[in-house]
Design goal:
This protein is mainly alpha-helical. Helix content is 70%, strand content 3%.
Length: 155
């Protein structure tokens, strides 16, 4: 097939596969929120169920409103590989997580209650952000696998 600016144009998709990928990404995003709630110490079943549901809803909104336009541009430029999907969603997940943790300040901040453990707390927050980015990248890779097929594969 023809070569574009990106890696190749050998991958193509269809609207039904895109819808399935957005649905799967939303559910996986909700599971990521559920994991964060459990890690934060939440154990009430109703609160966890509500967190998963609201997380799924907001993950779908974020994927459609932020990730969709970015991915549309990358698709048009020919950047259609799984690595590109993982990089985009990992970066978006990292940005959303850091933004939420820092109340929009853009930095991983910690209240200076105990200055002796401040650096350790900052390292822990950075590790959490890296883990969320890796999980978000995995969600993007799963969505890419659902949405894309090689040009000559029969769907």
């Amino acid at each position: 097939m023809g070569k574009g600016i990106g890696a190749t144009r050998d991958y193509e998709t269809s609207s039904d596969r895109i819808g399935k990928a957005f649905g799967a990404g939303s559910v996986l995003g909700g599971l990521l929120i559920l994991m964060l709630l459990i890690a934060a110490g939440q154990h009430m079943p109703l609160a966890l169920l509500a967190g998963w549901g609201i997380g799924t809803l907001f993950a779908g909104i974020a994927l459609a409103a932020v990730g969709g336009p970015i991915w549309l541009v990358l698709h048009a430029l020919g950047f259609r590989r799984g690595l590109h999907a993982a990089l985009v969603t990992g970066t978006l997940g990292l940005g959303l997580y850091v933004g939420a943790q820092s109340y929009g300040a853009g930095l991983l901040t910690i209240a200076p209650i105990d200055t002796r453990s401040w650096l350790l707390g900052l390292a822990f927050k950075a590790a959490q952000a890296a883990a969320v980015a890796l999980l978000a990248a995995g969600i993007g890779l799963a969505m890419w696998r659902i949405a894309y097929r090689r040009h000559n594969d029969v769907a």
